[in-house]
Amino acid sequence: MRAVRHTAYHTFPTLKEVEKPTPGPGEVLLKVAGAGLCHSDVAIFHEFDEGLNPQMDPEFTLGHENSGWVEELGPGVDGLEIGSAHLVYGPVGCGHCRACTRGQDTYCENATEMPYAGIGLGRDGGVAEYVVVPARNLIPLGDADPIKAAPLSDAGLTPYHAIKLALPHLNGGGKYALVVGLGGLGLVGVQILKALTGATIIATDMKEEAMAEAEKLGAITVPGGEGQVERIREITGGKGVDAAFDFVGVGATVQTAMASAARQSRVTIVGIGNLSPYEWAFLTTPYEAELVNTYWGTVEELHEVVDMYKAGQITPQVTTYSLDEALDAYQLLVEGKIAGRAVVVPHGEK
Ligand code: NAD
Ligand code: ZN
Ligand code: ZN
């Protein structure tokens, strides 16, 4: 079968012929319906240095945001109908530590002893015709479209987890949320904020089209550049935002988020753009403003994200690409030319 492989650090991926995998005990072979291309893949093949994360050493198939149809069950797996559509929870921890048993494989206590971090993250992922996944990582989609659903497993789950933890700050009247970066994650983030809170949503991106999309979803947009923080504060009546979500995470956006924060607010950094330290100072920081980072989410939260999708509360903006076009789509992602999410459909659109 064909698969898009991460072959070496600081190297653009390759479309290759590899052996079709066989599911082991507790695993399932999926025929891939959709594989979303996440900006973290760009970090993996272009930015990460060898030694930073040995669990993600090449070579492996990319794609940690997947959906598919059950093709074959491994030994010991039953109760899954052949042909049924599922979304895949990407992180794979040891399965038995405290974090894994509460469905939070992202914070597995034995992560450093694991051979990989997740599906498409050291272990073969879904930008391929088929992918093998642990049966416990499958979320049933029922009749819902698995191609449009694929981004939910990361571009949906990651903002959902970040927003859910910030809900105490947005619970009540007159609340404001800031969303920085309106790509795959950010545009779903705006929809989740709209569905879960009554907060006024302020959003920003470098791209006009991305801001126009956020406006359609009900956000007020403020372009970057000089005066941006003042404009955001003005919208909030001077106090600043109660929660900020930075889906870029470079020095400038972390600064913007912190400078826009209200007292007793929460600033969540989701984007991994900032590989250099942020300078924190007591007198310029609003009192009790929390600054946190979050990583992906839990398997239970992914069930909740799928419930929201089925209820029509979130619809990822998807452009599909065939497996032959997957490398072109990655190139467009590198160049910042993808609107919403690029999803590779190895077996076409059904
Ligand atoms: P994307 O490429 O789809 O979108 C990024 C958006 O940010 C684009 O619209 C771009 O125009 C905008 N942008 C870039 N620089 C900007 C700046 N300086 N100011 C304002 N806007 C800017 O990316 P994505 O797939 O949505 O991922 C977003 C980030 O989140 C990436 O850093 C990715 O690696 C990270 N990520 C983190 C997690 C996690 O668990 N923490 C999970 C998934 C992705
Ligand atoms: Zn990702
Ligand atoms: Zn574990």
Automatic annotation (TrEMBL):
- Keywords on record: Metal-binding, Oxidoreductase, Zinc
Q: Name one Pfam family in it.
A: ADH_zinc_N
Query: Under which EC number(s) is this enzyme classified?
Result: 1.1.1.1
Identify which top EC class this enzyme belongs to.
oxidoreductase
Gene3D superfamilies tied to this protein: Medium-chain alcohol dehydrogenases, catalytic domain, NAD(P)-binding Rossmann-like Domain
SMART domains of this UniProt entry?
Answer: PKS_ER
Name the PANTHER family on file. Answer: D-ARABINOSE 1-DEHYDROGENASE (NADP(+)) (PTHR43401:SF4), L-THREONINE 3-DEHYDROGENASE (PTHR43401)
Q: Which family does it belong to?
A: Belongs to the zinc-containing alcohol dehydrogenase family.
Q: Under what name is this protein listed?
A: Alcohol dehydrogenase
